[in-house]
């Protein structure tokens, strides 16, 4: 499979007269060559068949997961019987909140082991609003029946008010005590407050637990912290999902603005490339400068006015992620990072100023090509649609796989001293089994959704397959776009009289050729990238699982592997892009095209840095400007700093969830649009190198490159003089 990687490094013959022949013979003049070859055949058929079989298997996997999965299990809290809270069409339709019988048990060590608080959990319509024990309710019940009506909504449907406390504990029908609570993440949590700097609940620092013991509010806080750790492990995705539900339309608006801004920049590059470059520079430096100023303001504010009031963060109800934004060290770190980026950008502009001028001229030449083939500006929208389909299918398949199965119940002991703990059980028969007798107080509670069928046993493997095919499809869509654009721009370059000799619909023709003849070659190249990416993900997964057992040597090896995989991935991506250009021009298989592209680049190695790295740097500034501009507006909007223009959402768990989504999405959109220019410049460069080898500029063998660009490249000494025959 990796044979093509070794095609680049052929053994040097013993009688090689010069270094140039190490990388193949230069192209020779061919009077019949007029650009991309029309007569071609299918390439890499075997890889094409494997790719299609994987797609069919991927579709089948999605259908099977859709049959077995239920996304409601990830969106709704579940009681001890495995029933959803608040799900329409169920007995709990009007009971949207999960209530814990004894929250103090959530400090048990078994909680984090089983990801389940070892106490009975039921669905309720509202949380308790006052202190009341079961014994107190019985005393008041003789005088006023309404006390039982208020108390029974936090009991099972089979509960009765005449039971003794001992019988109540044995049957586990009601909580022994209730206390003031409020809903948070669809769960009843203690309603903590502060009084003169002291933590209280319901204006009290102590309360009765219903078992004859007096408990302090600190114990209840520790239990809340315990259940919070559980929520961090199970419900962080739910909070993020809630933020997406609240802000999805604002996110779409921000991404739409980013798309139009990128489009405007591409059109302006056609006419004012030099001026627009300075707009990029000033804009990027200004955005980074604003970030430095804002971080400094936050750092100064936290340093001068440290928080001394007990807040919900001190209690631990919020996740630790948000707490970082309350620390001055966080903003100081951000400020240092932005300062380093600012200085780096300025230094690169100083040292690369001459090459940047050449890169701007190349962008102007690319603008002419895009001006003659305007459909290339629309193609990123098609790529965006295809990528969105792949991402949505992957997410939905992953969700349905994760929620596949039937309810699984396990034994949970509050004290953690039961030998049968964590064993599967049947809740309907549990009280009559030997386990209930051997472990008094043990519960048979819902644990998770799973099963013992063949399908459920291979769900982890299906997750890996889902991720791998997703990466393969994503890279294939990108490769298809690169090959189609390369064919269109190669058609432009090899037209002697522009635009008269450019055929009609060059992009459509190139796209059709890539799909019809070279699906296998594109799948081959994208497969290599997908394998490298899956190895990187496996490395990160192992690092996460073994983080506590790492020593200095293992951390060093981990960093080395990360660096090696990063270098390998970027090197292969660079070679693949040039291989796709060769495929679009000559129609050969992937390995042959990769070898020809590598040899051509090595024969012109002095010119690669200008056309690739410097040009990409200029375009990278444009991407940063688009993402940074939209990011600043999104930050001001989601933090309620633009009330004059529009009122942003006020009920977000984390404002940085939609903010980072908008920034990352804007960068991807800008990358998709600016990649048209990058592919145009790279294709022109490959064709230019071929042109120099095929022709000499004479009347019989004229250059296809425009005289202006050819003269500038020669003047900058980026093109070595051809050897005299």
UniProtKB/TrEMBL annotation:
Is Repeat found in the keyword set?
Answer: no
Q: Which GO terms describe its biological process?
A: phosphatidylcholine biosynthetic process
Its GO CC terms are: plasma membrane
Determine if Transmembrane is one of this entry's keywords. yes
UniProt xrefs under InterPro entries: Choline_transptr-like
Which family does this protein fall into? Answer: Belongs to the CTL (choline transporter-like) family.
Keywords for this protein? Antiport, Cell membrane, Glycoprotein, Membrane, Transmembrane, Transmembrane helix, Transport
In alphabetical order, the GO MF annotations are: antiporter activity; choline transmembrane transporter activity
The opening ranks of the lineage are: Eukaryota, Metazoa, Chordata, Craniata, Vertebrata
Q: What is this protein called?
A: Choline transporter-like protein
What is the catalytic activity of this protein?
choline(out) + n H(+)(in) = choline(in) + n H(+)(out)
The record's gene field reads SLC44A5
Membrane-crossing residue ranges in chain numbering: 42-67, 248-271, 277-296, 331-352, 372-396, 469-494, 515-539, 614-638, 659-679
For membrane topology, the record states: Multi-pass membrane protein
State its location(s). Answer: Cell membrane
What Pfam families does the record tag this protein with? Answer: Choline_transpo
Q: What does this protein do?
A: Choline/H+ antiporter.
| Species assigned in the record | Sapajus apella (Brown-capped capuchin)
